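Appendix B, record 7
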Amino acid sequence: MPSHSTMEVRRAEVLTSRENRWLKKFRAALKGSPDDACIAVEGVHLVQEALRSGLTIDAVLVSTSGERHLTKLSPRLTRAIQLLRTSDRLFDSVTGTETPQGIAALVRPKEFTFDDLLSGGTPLVVVMVGVQDPGNVGTIVRSAEAFGATGAVATRGTAQPFSPKALRGSAGSALRLPIVSGIAPAIILAQLRVAGLQIFAASSSDAQGALLPSAANLKAPCALLIGNEGAGLPPEIERAADQLVRIPLAAPVDSLNAAVAAAVLLYEAARQRHAVWEKP
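Structure tokens (predicted):
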């Protein structure tokens, strides 16, 4: 097996012009509007996660102050990855964060199908319907991976899970968890039903028949529907679900944050599926 030593890293190209094609690609991707199939990850943690994930990485960009991070990354920086160096000023001109760490990468995420969401064990799919805050989307994806979901869906009208803010919120989970996006809610519901998944809708209402999370059978193949931060799930989506689930609250607040509600339900699913969690 070949060594991935620093000697194998392609000699870095130094970028000195704001109009350089690589800087334009990074700028577009880090602003959430890439001009090809690449997405951009920024910060040493996300770049490390991208390298570990085995995804195709077109280029790694480091600023003068960001070069200190290369020691951590060099074992995985093979000759297939274009290494780019630039000044702190030019790096800051392409990034969207207030305190950039001076390192970013252009990554080609895996493309998943609906069938991929059901593989890897008993299906547990999180479906985001109209979740508009990319930070919430990223946090939901992170919780989904942490609690053993087999996949996630960002339906049409939900924030893009590969946007820079969502990627930061996912802490790298979006690079690993099977995710399908851009599907109309009605279509994904039909696909879930044909696949035999029980469909649970998170509801903030006290609708008659709504179950507490512990009373819902989350051991079986199922999907959890999470709605918009303010309005929740559309009434027609709630009606299309097999069962409503409500999270009881100890204080008179209107509802939980969408990402928090998703985490509570995902934890309950994991608790039911892994009896060892219940042992002291």
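Remarks on this record: Confidence is low (pLDDT under 50) at residues 1-9. The first helix runs from residue 21 to 30.
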